[in-house]
Amino acid sequence: MKVVVLTGAGISAESGLATFRDADGLWEGHRPEDVATPEAFAYNRALVQRFYDERRASLRRVKPNAAHHALVELERRLGDDLLLVTQNVDDLHERAGSRRVLHMHGQLQRVRCEVCAAGHEWQDDLLHEPACPECGRPALRPDIVWFGEYPHGMDEIHEALSEVDVFAAIGTSGVVYPAAGFVDYAHASGATTVELNLVPTPRGDFHTTYAGPATEVVPRWVR
Ligand code: BV8
């Protein structure tokens, strides 16, 4: 049985990381368009660097929760028949033990060079260093997919959705595309679709909805 799981900020909420939408339109105190766009980075590099520094720092204070661990168990059972796609840029899936995680919106723990595109693991001083370790140019940026940029892994995701049997969306409001459209691809493949969320999203186009906190409904669904 082939399964695709899509996670969003809601799976990390009970670990203590703020979600995008539950912050009354402000995201960690900023309007998303002020910090999560290439234009914002070009206009106010320091503000955007600080925004991601703050989120990296908060990662050190949190840990995976029961929902992340339940998906590790699902991976143990399904192996390569599970594709875990996350919109999240945190590393909680990996720290829980998930081995195959597709970060379609990038990762807080990585930076990349705007000139030579080389990717680098984050080290505290790196982003404020002037030079890319690969090409030496002062052009490092967070390895994050901002609004208006092309998400990672789209071919692999579409391939998986074309032959999926079960598609589950966990802790996502379904407002950010193209992730929000994956359920439509799953339906086109004849898959069973499941939504696990604190509150059912208004779209209501999933076959089944498990309403409740992820730390309760995800282990129950995986069991
Ligand atoms: C692209 C990185 C071209 C940044 C992020 C008009 C219509 C349609 C689309 C567009 C449009 N105008 C512009 C677009 C495109 C745009 C888009 O979708 N905009 C939206 C706002 C309308 N998309 C893009 O620009 C994307 N690129 O389109 O490129 C293209 C075209 C075709 C094919 C491919 C590419 C790039 C989008 C990526 C942006 N970057 N993140 C960063 O993180 O710093 S997105 C950002 O939003 C985060 O990744 C975050 O994950 C995501 C928000 O979504 P959620 O994860 O769902 O989080 P949210 O807070 O919204 O919801 C939380 C949910 O959890 C809620 O439902 C809540 O009920 C639930 N919850 C809370 N607590 C719990 C819980 N559930 C369970 N348990 C709990 N305890």
TrEMBL record:
Residues noted as binding NAD(+) in the record, renumbered to the chain: 8-27, 87-90, 171-173, 197-199, 214
Domain Deacetylase sirtuin-type, by residue range, is 1-223
* Superkingdom of source: Bacteria
Q: Catalytic site residues?
A: H105
Q: Which cofactor does it need?
A: Zn(2+)
Asked if Nucleotide-binding is a keyword of the record, the answer is: no
User: What's a Gene Ontology MF term here?
Assistant: zinc ion binding
Q: Does the keyword NAD apply?
A: yes
Known catalytic reactions: N(6)-succinyl-L-lysyl-[protein] + NAD(+) + H2O = 2''-O-succinyl-ADP-D-ribose + nicotinamide + L-lysyl-[protein]; N(6)-acetyl-L-lysyl-[protein] + NAD(+) + H2O = 2''-O-acetyl-ADP-D-ribose + nicotinamide + L-lysyl-[protein]
Report the Pfam families cross-referenced here. Answer: SIR2
The signal sequence is none
Q: Which GO terms describe its cellular component?
A: cytoplasm
Cofactor comment: Binds 1 zinc ion per subunit.
Predominant localisation class:
cytoplasm
Task: Enumerate the subcellular locations listed in this protein's record, separating them with semicolons.
Answer: Cytoplasm
Family statement: Belongs to the sirtuin family. Class III subfamily.
Role played? NAD-dependent lysine deacetylase and desuccinylase that specifically removes acetyl and succinyl groups on target proteins. Modulates the activities of several proteins which are inactive in their acylated form.
The protein depicted here goes by the name NAD-dependent protein deacylase
Q: Which organism is it from?
A: Aeromicrobium flavum
Source species taxonomy? Bacteria, Bacillati, Actinomycetota, Actinomycetes, Propionibacteriales
Instruction: Identify the gene encoding this protein.
Output: cobB_1
